[in-house]
C-alpha cells in the first residue's frame, strides 16, 4: 500500500516496474474477495467500480480481470485456466472512476470460452500489464463509500411534490445524519402533526442553503 489515495482517501494500491521481453510476460496485482480464498456471490450487483490512474512514465494499458469458478483452478471446472473475464482499460494521469458492468467483461483471445462470467462465484479482482518492455506505475483505489437514494415515482405532477421533496432533505441531511453521528434521529411518527413535520423540513432546507 502507498499513501495518498483517490478523492482524499489515505492509501492506494500501487505496482511499479518494467515488463520483460520474453514470449509470455506480465505483471499484476490483485486481491481475493474472501479470506481464506473462496467464491464471493456478487450477483446482486451489476458490475464493479474503482478509481485508477497511471503515474509519470507508465504505460496506460491495463487489463482488469475477475477470476470466477469457470476460470480459476480452485473452481475445478477449467482445463486451460486463468483466461479470466475482464476488460482492457486505458488509464490517465489523473484519478478516474471506472465502472465495468459484468455483461461487458470478455475473455482473452486464447483458450476455450465459456458463456460469460458467473457473478455468483467470483474469487477476486486483478490488474495486469502485459505490454512487452513497457515501464508501468499503476495506482488503484476503491475510493470513498458512496450512497445514492432514489425516490421512484415522485415527480412534479404529484400533489405533494414540493413538501415531499423537502421531506427528503429533512430525512437525508437531518435525521439520518444525526442518527449516524449521534445515535438519535428524527423519523416521521405515524399520526404526527403535518405542520410540525413541514416545519422540520423547512428548517433543514434553510440550514442547507
Short recap of the structure:
This protein folds into two domains: 2-141, Jelly Rolls (Sandwich); 161-208, no CATH class.
Layout of secondary structure:
Elements: E1 2-3, E2 11-18, E3 27-32, E4 47-54, E5 61-66, E6 85-90, E7 96-101, E8 124-129, E9 135-141, H1 161-182, H2 194-208
Antiparallel strand pairs: 1-2, 2-9, 3-8, 4-7, 4-9, 5-6, 5-8
Helix pairs in contact: 1-2
Please characterize this protein's 3D structure.
With 209 residues, this protein is α+β, with helices and mostly antiparallel strands. The protein has 2 domains: 2-141, Jelly Rolls (Sandwich); 161-208, no CATH class. Helix content is 18%, strand content 26%. The protein contains 2 helices and 9 strands. The strands form 2 sheets. It has a 5-stranded antiparallel beta sheet, with no helix packed on it. It has a 4-stranded antiparallel beta sheet with strand order 3-8-5-6, with no helix packed on it. The longest helix is centred in the last third of the chain and has 22 residues, at 161-182. The radius of gyration is 23 Å and the shape is elongated.
Q: In CATH, what is the class of the largest domain?
A: Mainly Beta
Class by alpha and beta content = alpha+beta
* Radius of gyration using CA atoms only: 23 Å
Largest sheet: 5 strands, antiparallel
Strand content: 25-35%
First-last Cα distance: 39 Å
Total beta strands: 9
The main sheet orders its strands as 1-2-9-4-7
**Annotated CATH architecture of the largest domain:** Sandwich
Query: For the record, what is the CATH homologous superfamily label of the largest domain?
Result: Galactose-binding lectin
Order of helices and strands: EEEEEEEEEHH
- In CATH terms, what is the fold-level topology of the largest domain? Jelly Rolls
Return the average pLDDT rounded to an integer: 86
Tell me, briefly, the overall form.
elongated
Tally of separate domains = 2
Unreliable residue stretches: none
Quaternary structure type? single chain
Number of helices: 2
Helical fraction equals 10-25%
